[in-house]
Amino acid sequence: MEWASQLCENRHIGSKMTDSKYFTTTKKGEIFELKAELNSDKKEKKKEAVKKVIASMTVGKDVSALFPDVVNCMQTDNLELKKLVYLYLMNYAKSQPDMAIMAVNTFVKDCEDPNPLIRALAVRTMGCIRVDKITEYLCEPLRKCLKDEDPYVRKTAAVCVAKLHDINAQLVEDQGFLDTLKDLISDSNPMVVANAVAALSEIAESHPNSNLLDLNPQSINKLLTALNECTEWGQIFILDCLANYTPRDDRESQSICERVTPRLSHANSAVVLSAVKVLMKFMEMLPKDLDYYGTLLKKLAPPLVTLLSAEPELQYVALRNINLIVQKRPEILKHEMKVFFVKYNDPIYVKLEKLDIMIRLASQANIAQVLAELKEYATEVDVDFVRKAVRAIGRCAIKVEQSAERCVSTLLDLIQTKVNYVVQEAIVVIKDIFRKYPNKYESVIATLCENLDSLDEPEARAAMIWIVGEYAERIDNADELLESFLEGFHDESTQVQLQLLTAIVKLFLKKPTETQELVQQVLSLATQDSDNPDLRDRGYIYWRLLSTDPVAAKEVVLAEKPLISEETDLIEPTLLEELICHIGTLASVYHKPPSAFVEGSRGVQHRRLPARAGSGESSESPDVGQPVGAVPDTPPAVIPSQGDLLGDLLNLDLAPPTSSAPTVTPSMQMGAMDLLGGGLDSLLGGDIAGSPAMGAGLASAPVVMPASLGAPVSSGLDDLFDLGGGVGMPTGAFVVPKTIWLPAMKAKGLEISGTFARRAGVIQMELSLTNKAMSVMTDFAIQFNRNSFGLAPAGPLQVLTPLSPNQTTEISLPLSNVGPVMKMEPLNNLQVAVKNNIDVFYFSCQYPISILFVEEGKMERQVFLATWKDIPNDNETQYQIKDCHLNSDAATTRLQSSNIFTIAKRTVEGQDMLYQSIKLTNGIWVLVELRVQTGSPNYMLSVKCRAPEVAQLVYQCYEMVLKN
Amino acid sequence: MISQVFILTSKGDHLIYKDFRGEAGVDAISAFYESVTALSGDQPPVVMTHKGMHFIHVRQGGLYWVASTKTNASPFTIIEFLNRLTALTKDYCGTLSEKSVRANFALIYELLDEMVDYGYIQTTSTDILKNFIQTEAESSKPFSLFDLSNVGLFGAETQQDKVAPSAAASRPIMANRGEQGGKNEIFVDVIERLAMVIGSNGIIMKADIEGEIRVKCYLPNCSEMRIGLNEELSIGKSQLRGYGSAVRVDECSFHQAVKLDEFDTYRIIKVCPSQGEQTVMQYQVCDDLPCAPPFRLFPSVERDSGNRLLMYLKLRCDLPPKSAAINVSITVPVPKGSVSLSQELSSPDQRAELQPKSKAVLWEIPRFPGGSQLAALFKLEVPGLSSASLLEVGPVSMCFELPKHTCTGLQIRFLRLTPTQPGLSQRWVRYVTHSDSYTIRV
């Protein structure tokens, strides 16, 4: 340190008085006293006075009035006094800009001083005086100082450029200081390099595109060289700068990593973390099969472990970072589970973070150890920690399937302690375990129910209610249990109310006979007595669902729930990538991107990890795959947090809104009891027509989901086909032209015409709605009556915009065939209700049976033969089709497009015999023999079917297909 | 980038306020103080945010040492910096307290000015700083040899009060300048912290030792110091030197001024110590401990016919007979419903009490010689005692100090100074092991 040695003589013996006295309370007139002392001739007295002034300044007293007097003390050769005066100047110059000018001369003079310490002091202080007028005077001295022979002055000047840039960016650019600063990156003194890098990095952040820090292999090399020589703080600047560089290829990446790795053993944790950041980023580019990649992974673990032996403040910050690293590359710390075990004297915030990381690292290999720890934690004193430990046991069960049983028994042990908050947490997590492993651990329900009375927290109550509702059929007194909650319904929190409503509806659907009163009670509580819109809406939805279509209600409410994901609280992958680029910074502690908490332009650029070089796998996050049983290709879905889980659960109950549930809402003026009564009847099988219907509906329940989910997708496709159909696709199935089903005069101005078609395996009801009234029509909905083949709308009637007068809209409504069944007369009759804002209208129409012919209707020859023989001859019906001029081949093709499949053809004495099969949506097979006499326009049709009623319709269908 | 640095007393009085970047006003101090005092127990106090300002602080010497920033700065950098600032303040002012900071505010301002420029940390090394610092330290009390009387504590943090100034550091490093009182002394402390979890079956479930070699130097000009460690010291899991009872550490890191050219062969650390206190080497050992755990507990817990819980604890100290543990305290969590305690202890200098707030029995033993065994019987009155209450007993945690003992067996063979110091230069080497977290499960 060349500048240092010559300065030693500047030291002198200070006063023997203690500075504390300066803090004694000021009395009136103190300012005058100070003024006098400041103007004293004695240096010692002056210095004491300035100290007093600064003491007052520190405690927040306004001593700005002394500005001129203090500035007068500036011209001194006493360095200690000079420093004190400068301290004062920096604080008050801003509020006294005119006075500050008085100091300029001294500054300029000091910048020429032979003593480098004074030169540096002057340039440092001038930069801190944020007064515009001063900056003009600063330029010349600064230019000289940037080229000063003493590195101490140069490094101070480098920082001063950043200061000046903040005050007047234009000036800095005009004066060419940025170029000088760039030159300083190649300075011989590492401290100067470090400060230049720091200053340039900061300036570059406010000019994102300026390319100020022109990082290229040469400059990187310079930085790496300086890295080994400069102080720990300088190393941090350089490493942070390196982290912004993107190497050209994996080899450059590796060579930088090799030169950065020694920093990992530095005693300063900030250096270590900056190095970890560089390595985590550049590692992304290394091929994973490279030996060096493995070496690097091994080298990253020890420094991270070492951080955990630091004081709690650093430990906490380190744990937040490790949490990110573990999510990105769990393999780094997979063998280090033990270091995350909590110590009894860790502060609670450290304990909680450790717990979180323990769960992330839990795997089949270490689960026994982890569980043993967690069980210990669950008996500790700190309530928050105990709660989280209990939750952690549940998370282990969900994450590591092999441990689930042990986790459940551990939780049961804990419930036995009857410690209130332990029991409640245990119940909340057991609910999650039930979600993950349905029908496996229900034996514990009895134990849970014993603790019903002790639950006083909403989350635990809601979880318990969910369990009771979900397993209502196995809990004998489920109705009593739920009823007991119902008493104080309005005092419960919303989540409990919602859960109670759902649970009772579930119970009702499972045990309809005994629980009618209960369900009516809860529905009326939710809809009539509650002000909460969520609760009311859900109540109404259930109510309508139960009253209009109990079968659908069952399908919706008791639908199979998707399994919950094994990892919770995962950070969303793109955010994780960005946070990895910000390791060691505040962002990594908050787990938020810098743009979320840094004002202004700084740090707003989103950083991304570089792509892996030379491989096609792009930048997909490579190691998200968990040690155990994870599917690497599909990153686990993110469950926001434990707290929201319940909310999700609740929503799941309502998740399939597009299912086959009819969406017509009966008009509200109908008595509520009636509505419910109807629903009840059909559920209880009291309605004779309803009972087979229900059976059919239930039997087909498992197929509901796929069918209805498929519908909206394929309907989109069908719209495409529709276009083609308009042009006249030769091979398309025949579609009857639209006919008017509902004349406008019968429906207050709404005219509906329509037809049916089968497109790509989906039955479509094609409707034209025309508004012939004078007012706009909105709120369309449609519902079918029960019908012979269980047709029902697969989705709501989607009229996107209100229908203006004289406007027509074309709608394709996909239909499913899983609705309630009732034999109609004629068989293909369909009764439809359409609702709009004006009224509900009813009409009936008939659909061609061909829409029910499925694509898989081609029978094996052998089967055909056997079936044909098997069906009694009584069931055979014969028809004659007249005036058909197609030959047998053309007929085959045309019939085929309507899913009538020709299995065999025989020619006997100039007569073609076509054997054909048809399968209906409800699984009924229709076998047909079609005789075509060459040269005769008349065909003979023999239809054989176990359900002879359809024969007539099949005949009509042949007529239509062959003649059009 | 650091925007401001300030030091506050626990009551919120401003001791030091330094603004580096002019980004925020003095009101940041009160904003900080409000947030820090409003924190509830389970919120991490390390990083706090208020209106775009982020505060990072450490507590040392009963004071808040705070840095604020407006950028996405590194909390590691700032915490390390604040720790260095406290260490330097201690080095320069002798002790770390409200009194010493008040007395030396001009010195601390000067230090801050040299340490940080425009929020960029410049240096924290005493060697460099001593060239710039003009202000003399004000020692709050004159240095006296009596302060050194308590050799057992000196240089090392105690378990009870981690921020207590070590006696060795209770005089300013520069005080010998122009004054007669200073002595040419150098202290080398080997301090180990032992964390251990022992299962109910007596098996060690987890053990680790964090150790450091700390040097406190009062020599004005010491060009090089050579510290010789055990020659058979091995580093890493696989490496083995010599036979039998090798001293082993898993990892170690060194101060950046340490030269290691003789370390690999002779286990000699070479360092040119700056004046003041520094940690020259840190090391740690996980899992495989070279020694037996210092304490073994044999508990038996049962309920008598009534509402009484009987705990019979037998504690054995497995240190070598020449050593002893001091300030041993044992904390046994007991059922929440416990109302009173009666005890039978084996000697009058021991004490035991039921802590009403945390519901734990605290048993204190001032001195516990190696190889001996102590027993205690605790009878607790627990209304409504149930078998589940028994589960609430434990785990037992212990605090203690083991003077003149290192668990790793690390020793300093020699301490040589070159050039040989003229006149009085005293060299002190001390060892101490503290319990960091010593838990025995019941």
From TrEMBL, chain B:
CDD domains: AP-4_Mu4_Cterm (cd09253), AP4_Mu_N (cd14838). Pfam families: Adap_comp_sub, Clat_adaptor_s. Gene3D superfamilies: 3.30.450.60, Mu homology domain, subdomain B. One of its GO terms (biological process) is vesicle-mediated transport. Keywords: Coated pit, Membrane, Protein transport, Transport. Residues 183-441 form the MHD domain. SUPFAM superfamilies: Second domain of Mu2 adaptin subunit (ap50) of ap2 adaptor (SSF49447), SNARE-like (SSF64356). It is found in: Membrane, Coated pit. Belongs to the adaptor complexes medium subunit family. This is MHD domain-containing protein. It comes from Alosa alosa (allis shad). The lineage of its organism: Eukaryota, Metazoa, Chordata, Craniata, Vertebrata.
